[in-house]
Amino acid sequence: MAEWANVNCWYANHLMNRIGPIDWGASVSRPSSLSAPFLMATGVLTGDGRAERPVAPPHSHPEPMLAWCYRGTVWVYLEDSIWRLAPGEGIWLPANTPHTARHERDSVGCYTNVPDSAFEEPVLEVRRVRVQRAVQEMLLHLGVNDMDPELRVRIQGVLLDMLQEPVADEPTQAGEIPLPGDERVRPLVEAVLAAPGDVRTARDLFAQHGLHERTVLRVFVSDIGMSFGQWRTGVRMTMAARLLVAGTPVGAVGSKCGYHSTSAFSAAFKERFGVTPTQYVARAKSEGAHRAYWR
């Protein structure tokens, strides 16, 4: 079964389907932005108040890419999943992976391309990475300052070593929201992502979208390894965790997430994360890494 353990701190702050359907079939391969002997190239994009739009049409790069968030919230869209990145969080994308992204208002997202030959182990699947504050600042520094080429390459090598360090499990991690690929359930998925707190029953939602319960169960289990109910709860808990860390009262969070009482929400939250909402907030705020990346 697909795991939801890594989505505790991400939620759909804006309507996730506002960017509209993504035409993955129209994805284009962009030329490399790298030039020898350098080991990386970083592009920086900022939110411009149009949070409902992707920053670029779907595309891919001939080399692996690190997508990471410097400020605010960055959403990275892949064909089969959506990743929400908070400051200091990133994901490695293998070469030739179609993707696009959306930045929430006043957010800063960065995209660092690295040649396959620079890695100790090849990037063969999407994986999360902690982008330490020192690494963030140096990547940005390299992007806007001239220096001796040999010095630049040495610094880039050190940064790559730091970026390839194992990521320890933490209560605040980059998270993936798995998405079923079957087009029949896409309107249903978009409706839940747009309004995780909708109190209508699953059957009511299925009926609205002209779907049979068995069809939905079969699609979700086949595509992402969990039932619709499990997936919907995961989306709600993702939203809940982010709201809690942002300072929203527990009762208000429960209401926004579709729970009729604070006790019911707290029980569901503890079942998901193993701690109460209050304990979760305390742990998140006590994490040194978490404090370092709050902006």
Automatic annotation (TrEMBL):
<keyword id="KW-0804">Transcription</keyword>
<dbReference type="InterPro" id="IPR011051">
    <property type="entry name" value="RmlC_Cupin_sf"/>
</dbReference>
<keyword id="KW-0238">DNA-binding</keyword>
<dbReference type="GO" id="GO:0043565">
    <property type="term" value="F:sequence-specific DNA binding"/>
</dbReference>
<dbReference type="Pfam" id="PF12833">
    <property type="entry name" value="HTH_18"/>
</dbReference>
<dbReference type="InterPro" id="IPR020449">
    <property type="entry name" value="Tscrpt_reg_AraC-type_HTH"/>
</dbReference>
<dbReference type="InterPro" id="IPR018062">
    <property type="entry name" value="HTH_AraC-typ_CS"/>
</dbReference>
<dbReference type="InterPro" id="IPR009057">
    <property type="entry name" value="Homeodomain-like_sf"/>
</dbReference>
<dbReference type="InterPro" id="IPR003313">
    <property type="entry name" value="AraC-bd"/>
</dbReference>
<protein>
    <submittedName>
        <fullName>AraC-like DNA-binding protein</fullName>
    </submittedName>
</protein>
<dbReference type="InterPro" id="IPR018060">
    <property type="entry name" value="HTH_AraC"/>
</dbReference>
<dbReference type="GO" id="GO:0003700">
    <property type="term" value="F:DNA-binding transcription factor activity"/>
</dbReference>
<dbReference type="Pfam" id="PF02311">
    <property type="entry name" value="AraC_binding"/>
</dbReference>
<dbReference type="InterPro" id="IPR014710">
    <property type="entry name" value="RmlC-like_jellyroll"/>
</dbReference>
<feature type="domain" description="HTH araC/xylS-type">
    <location>
        <begin position="183"/>
        <end position="283"/>
    </location>
</feature>
<keyword id="KW-0805">Transcription regulation</keyword>
